[in-house]
Specification:
- The structure is a homodimer of 337-residue chains.
- Chain A is α/β, with parallel strands linked by helices.
- Chain A folds into three domains: 53 residues, lambda repressor-like DNA-binding domains (434 Repressor (Amino-terminal Domain)); 130 residues, 3-Layer(aba) Sandwich (Rossmann fold); 130 residues, Response regulator (Rossmann fold, 3-Layer(aba) Sandwich), CATH 3.40.50.2300.
- Chain A is 45% helix and 16% strand.
- Chain A has a six-stranded parallel β-sheet, with helices on both faces. The first copy, chain A, has a six-stranded mixed β-sheet with strand order 7-6-8-9-10-12, sandwiched between helices.
- In chain A, α1 packs across α2, α5 runs parallel beside α12 and α8 runs parallel beside α9.
- Chains A and B meet through α4, α5, β2, α6 and α10 of A and α4, α5, β2, α6 and α10 of B.
- Chain A binds a DNA duplex (16 and 16 nucleotides) through α2 and α4.
DNA sequence: TTGAAAGCGGTACCAC
DNA sequence: GTGGTACCGCTTTCAA
């Protein structure tokens, strides 16, 4: 059995209260006493039971993170930022993969609540009324990472998707492209606002998005590959394609390659996110960079700050918009001719 | 304040013992009583405090996972497998990024111990004597994922790296390659055993690994890129390159491309791991597949089974070797001429 | 400066 | 079947 605080107290000839004081370096303990206690701690190899402490303190110093799937390359970076920030502030992180499945989400919310995590970082495509309800029932501080809720109630940290997408499109237009296809995912916050952004830029330059050139895929490389293959069956081809995620851009590039079309000589491709591998593959992918690490980090920081606050409601509707940045690499070039 | 078990008991006109019984659906409770209690639970929105339960049960149903860096594409899949298995068995997972920094690892071990996780899943390149000591002090069941300890004391799940690497090399040799370079990382378990495997196959076919063709990099794409650039300055070039990870293979391919060398026409490249993106990029990467998801899953399962055991020591030295599999794609082909 | 003791929110043994 | 109650291991008044 592990030694308890009582063992340490006995060993040092003091009360448990005193041991507790030196462990938490609280109030003044006589130097001599402190020494004795520390010696006892060392000798017994005492490790305080955080469960017991959390029980009385009502603070577990643990955060819950629920996201769709850690194996989607977008998330590991976010989670890394998150965990780094949490760790630096003395928090740990419980990771939950929801697969965007509401039932699973609810299930996770419940255990997290039961395990008394101090707060929750949530990431998902869409925040529905059901989510809002669930969060309310949770009675736990929640911050949204890389998404936001339609009513703007929950604090969140993200980029300006619409603006960023518009700038990605501007890049293509600036290169001289006029016939441009887009491949987007289908959720309201990332998908639709990016699509809207693409449209904004097009419109601004007197261009339009042909019906046949607005492709929809499931945020996966495979689906993007498929829709692009379909696209290639129709003529004329676009001279550039904007994908709403790098993963999808990879699928697009694969389809082009397999269709005998060169990037960027025949068709330019721009992605979104700037995942690590974007610069590693060839042709290196031009991408609208989203500061994923920072999104995670800031989300954790926001949550932790919120926990320290007397008045957590002061964080209601707080919205942290992080800067995006165009990273030009090899996959985009002026159209031929 | 959250309602407690006492509130529920009062509300239902029973004792806390009875409430506890219905919550844990233990021993027999009269149907009528059960109903009343359940109603009370519902009405009050009662959520049991898992901290309190864990305190007395000495089981937190939480697992610790410490790995170098979740943003390395190898880990998300492992973690996904792990978390899925844990979730299915009623466990949660605390994620820790150690950056392979011993001080950080020790720090994590301590909090995890204090938070009374039931067990630990550990992944790292090298298990040193210090690690073994730390684990012993931890007094917690530990299972190693994708690695093993030199003394074979800790249970682990991994592939046969040496054999798998040998087969990867056989593939190249079978294609007709004779002048082959390898790029490996530097840790004993994955790095050296894969290097050894490459050598085994070469030797078996009367071939040797020239000094100039045994490259060493830090398991990153960037480093692999650099060493490959260096390699390209010397002639004659190898006709094939085996990389000990897909990430490194990506770096190798990038360097080849930038050096004007085509894959697989001029040089073949084979990776190791078969990360998700291996099949997405072009040329699609031939790779020795490691069942990352299953490694995580089986590691979690092994740990959980170990926790259920009366005699945890029966798991000492248990070693689960999962099958590897060659996945041939586009990046390997017979040498020219 | 230090100690006694009342919780924190459950569980589980022992009676009835 | 159900209730009383002694813990689990720690924190935190309140006194001394």
């Amino acid at each position: 059995m592990q030694p308890t605080i009582a063992d340490v107290a006995r060993h040092a000839g003091v009360s448990t209260a005193t041991v507790s004081r030196v462990i938490n370096s609280q109030s003044v303990v006589a130097p001599a006493t402190r020494e004795r206690v520390q010696a006892a701690v060392r000798e017994l190899g005492y490790q305080p039971n955080a469960l017991a402490a959390s029980l009385v303190r009502r603070r577990s110093h643990t955060l819950g993170v629920v996201l769709p799937d850690i194996s989607n390359p977008f998330f590991p970076e976010v989670v890394r930022g998150l965990e780094d920030a949490a760790h630096a502030s003395g928090y740990n992180v419980i990771l939950c993969n929801s697969d965007l499945d509401t039932a699973k989400e609810i299930e996770y919310f419940e255990v997290l609540r039961q395990k008394r995590v101090d707060g929750l970082i949530y990431h998902s495509g869409t925040i529905t009324a059901d989510h809002l309800d669930a969060f309310r029932r949770l009675k736990l501080p929640v911050v949204l990472a890389a998404t936001h809720d339609p009513r703007g109630e929950l604090p969140c940290v993200l980029v300006d998707n619409r603006q960023a997408a518009a700038e990605a499109m501007e890049h293509l237009i600036g290169l001289g492209h006029g016939r441009i296809a887009v491949v987007t995912g289908s959720d309201p916050v990332s998908g639709e606002s990016r699509l809207q952004g693409y449209r904004d830029a097009l419109t601004r330059h007197g261009l339009t998005l042909d019906d046949g050139l607005a492709l929809q895929a499931q945020w996966t490389a495979d689906e993007a590959y498929q829709v692009t293959r379909e696209l290639l069956k129709r003529r004329p081809l676009p001279t550039a394609i904007a994908a709403a995620s790098d993963l999808m851009a990879l699928g697009v590039m694969g389809a082009l390659r397999d269709g005998g079309i060169r990037v960027p000589e025949d068709v330019s491709v721009i992605g979104f996110d700037n995942i690590r591998l974007a610069g590693t593959i060839r042709p290196a992918l031009t991408s609208m960079s989203q500061p994923m690490y920072d999104i995670g980090k800031e989300a954790a920081l926001l949550l932790i700050r919120c926990l320290a606050e007397e008045e957590p409601d002061s964080f209601r509707g707080r919205r942290l918009v992080l800067p995006h940045r165009l990273v030009v690499r090899e996959s985009t070039a002026p159209p031929r001719g």
